[in-house]
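2.7 Reproducibility. Because tokenized structures are sensitive to small changes in the input, we list the exact sequence used for EBP2 protein, including any N-terminal residues retained from the expression construct. No trimming or masking was applied before prediction.
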Amino acid sequence: QDGLKQCLSEFKQQLAWVERLDVTSGQVVDPVSQSASNNDAVDPENDFQREMNFYRQAQAAVLEALPRLRKLQVPTRRPDDYFAEMAKSDQQMQKIRQKLKSKQEAMERSEKAKQLRAMRKYGKKVQTEILQRRQKEKKNMLNAVKKYQKGLSDKLDFLDEEQTSSQGNKKGSASQRIKKGPNAKRRYKNQKFGFGGKKKGSKWNTKESFNDVSSFRSKVAHNKGPGKAGKGGKKALNKRPGKRARQKMKSRAR
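Resulting structure tokens (single pass, no recycling of outputs):
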């Protein structure tokens, strides 16, 4: 103990508290048991109890030091533009972000798959209900027909109901067709090829076209029009001279 006091007197410096910032806290009150904890009450083998005691001592020291720092006008909060280097590198944080993003995408895909499965189940359920209802209606109609055939009933209401339902379906489909109209493909084909009708034999002669001779020109028809020379007409004028004639023309030009 004397040696420790001697070492303490050697390195101890008489400086202001703001330069030292040392805080010594006494006994800390446990908020649960409302009793002062001491070294005898703390079990050193109990890690949780020991760490909690350290935590309460540090908290008490902070609560004691903060008012003193504020009184000395020493800032205790980090400014907004303070830059501190991260403990992990940007590459490591990028890997973590990518991993989190992949996990989130996997969760979204699984959620969508669950929704699709639920929708399929609901669609199958609705389809089975519709089939069961149709089978039930068909069975009721067959039973009514059998009763009528056996003479047990003289009512034909089921035929009227079926006829009205079929007419309603036809009216609905016709109204849908009128409202919908032709699609884009049909409109393009109509614009390109016409709207149907007879195409074969459209250029054949009829009685009226056969008797109409107003557009007939005999000179043009028999190759006797202006500019026609002899038997060949225009072809005779543009006839190429023979080989010997061309050679004679070349020799004359020399």
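The chain has ten helices and two strands.
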